[in-house]
């Protein structure tokens, strides 16, 4: 059993005379290996952006807990937390989910002030934020996502490979440049993982939140779009590549060539966030009119959506991670379409509602549940959004039937095939949520609310 080394204890001495987590002991390596094997198959769905093979090898090094050659204590504890969560089995004393949640929070709080590896601290914040998100602690999840965003701002990870000559691309990290292309890729992926988590929380809260990277840094984001870890190993990102204003180019003029799924998910979440935060009324003076134009954004979202590979490109059995990530990209861009169409003016309202219904059906189709499938907690908000759109349409169709019958003085006509199809779609959405809510208290709450709305319809 290994004990936290005195190096980290010294880091915390200024805030506490006694390190409250300095007595943590890891279980045997066989148990750690088992937890990693529970966690890693689901890691990409939870915002894990590091090289999984490197992480696995370093986590199992026969070195003390806290040794700088192993992952940081905060990151290890939150990975162990997820492993215990997925294992659903017995755990050694002091290694329950509540124990590990407590340890994760405290180690991360120590590491924020003096991170040895900033990308590991950001990774720990994302994984802990996602765990809390999944378990209905939304404000705590937001706290950790904001902590990761603050680190991104402080270390200028939004300007990696920036073409702006005056930019110091690693800020305080200039003395700790990435050791190789893979480590640089981890930082790039880490930046976009934070933006995805923050967008997911905004959708779930159904409102703009006080501090989001895409809001605060939007025009200054030059970091390249993320690639898969294997792409960085293969040197796919040219060594002389420089970028500028990634978000602006996505919204205004980028083409949409074949891309890695992680890039598609990142771009879909940016479209969604941009629509969620559109200001009411006239666009601000400093914003391109196109970037807030309903017709322009409708076209751009449609172009991007049509460029996505069909869902069957990835086998759900041979490549379950790729399959789930692609499905999520489809669902996110469909949600962006819905949120845009809900802002439509009266002159195009009927057309916009028809598009919303189509997008809602698309969300429920691509997120169709299978037992034992682990998904990101934003899936609950996506399903709830889609079911809500279909319920609005059912009420509209029924209203027409009622008005027609009243005007003709005849009994209510039977439901049309269109109305029946909508009801079937809602039931399918509820069936999907019923499967996912077994693993998430947040989704259980969302399922209950949608079910109550459906039953009272």
Secondary structure: elements and pairs:
Elements: H1 6-11, H2 29-39, H3 52-59, H4 73-87, H5 97-113, H6 118-134, H7 138-154, H8 181-205, H9 213-216, H10 229-233, H11 246-252, H12 261-276, H13 289-292, H14 294-307, H15 320-341, H16 349-366, H17 378-408, H18 417-436, H19 441-455
Helix pairs in contact: 2-4, 4-5, 4-6, 5-6, 6-7, 6-8, 7-8, 8-12, 8-17, 12-15, 14-15, 15-16, 15-17, 16-17, 17-18, 17-19, 18-19
* Proportion of residues in β-strands: under 5%
Question: Percent of residues in helical segments?
Answer: 55-70%
For the secondary structure, the number of strands is 0
Q: Ends: how far apart? A: 58 Å
Could you state the oligomeric state of the chains shown? single chain
Q: What radius of gyration results from the CA coordinates?
A: 23 Å
- The helix/strand class is mainly alpha
Secondary-structure element order, N to C: HHHHHHHHHHHHHHHHHHH
Shape: globular
Alpha plus pi helix count: 19
* Average of the residue pLDDT scores: 86
Major beta sheet, specifics? none
Low-pLDDT stretches: 1-21, 168-175, 282-287
Report on this structure:
By secondary structure, the protein is mainly α. The chain has a domain of 86 residues. It contains 19 helices and no strands. Helix 12 runs parallel beside helix 15 and helix 18 packs antiparallel against helix 19. The chain is globular. The N and C termini lie far apart (58 Å). One of its GO terms (cellular component) is nucleus.
């Amino acid at each position: 059993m290994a004990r936290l080394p005195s190096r980290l204890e010294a880091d915390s001495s200024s805030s506490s005379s006694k390190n409250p987590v300095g007595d943590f002991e890891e279980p045997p390596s066989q148990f750690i290996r088992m937890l990693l094997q529970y966690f890693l198959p689901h890691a990409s769905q939870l915002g894990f952006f590091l090289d999984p093979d490197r992480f696995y090898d370093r986590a199992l090094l026969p070195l003390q807990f806290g040794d700088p050659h192993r992952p940081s204590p905060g990151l290890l504890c939150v990975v162990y937390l997820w492993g215990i969560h997925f294992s659903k089995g017995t755990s050694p004393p002091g290694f329950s989910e509540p124990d590990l949640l407590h340890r994760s929070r405290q180690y991360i709080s120590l590491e924020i002030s003096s991170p040895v590896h900033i990308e590991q601290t950001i990774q720990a914040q994302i994984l802990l934020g996602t765990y809390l998100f999944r378990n209905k602690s939304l404000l705590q999840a937001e706290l950790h996502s904001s902590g990761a965003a603050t680190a991104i701002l402080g270390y200028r990870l939004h300007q990696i490979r920036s073409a702006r000559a005056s930019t110091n691309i690693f800020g305080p990290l200039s003395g700790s440049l990435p050791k190789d292309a893979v480590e640089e890729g981890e930082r790039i992926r880490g930046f976009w993982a934070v933006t995805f988590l923050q967008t997911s929380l905004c959708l779930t809260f159904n409102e703009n939140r006080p501090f989001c990277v895409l809001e605060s840094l939007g025009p200054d984001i030059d970091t390249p779009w993320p690639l898969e870890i294997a792409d960085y190993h293969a040197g796919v990102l040219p060594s002389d590549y420089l970028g500028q204003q990634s978000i602006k180019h996505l919204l205004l003029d980028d083409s949409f060539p074949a891309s890695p799924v992680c890039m598609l998910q990142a771009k879909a979440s940016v479209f969604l966030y941009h629509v969620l935060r559109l200001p009411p009324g006239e666009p601000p003076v400093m914003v391109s009119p196109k970037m807030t134009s309903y017709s322009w954004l409708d076209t751009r979202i449609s172009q991007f959506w049509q460029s996505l590979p069909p869902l069957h490109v990835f086998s759900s059995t041979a490549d379950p991670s790729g399959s789930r990530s692609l499905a999520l990209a489809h669902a996110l861009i469909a949600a962006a379409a819905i949120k845009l169409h809900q802002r439509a003016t009266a002159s195009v309202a009927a057309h916009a509602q028809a598009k919303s219904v189509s997008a809602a059906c698309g969300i429920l189709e691509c997120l169709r549940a299978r037992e034992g499938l682990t998904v990101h907690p934003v899936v609950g908000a996506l399903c709830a959004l889609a079911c809500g759109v279909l319920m609005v349409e059912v009420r509209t169709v029924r209203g027409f039937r009622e008005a027609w019958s009243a005007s003709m003085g005849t009994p209510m006509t039977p439901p049309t095939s269109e109305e029946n199809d909508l009801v079937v779609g809602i039931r399918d959405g509820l069936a999907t949520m019923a499967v996912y809510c077994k693993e998430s208290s947040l989704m259980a709450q969302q399922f209950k609310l949608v079910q109550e709305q459906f039953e009272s319809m």
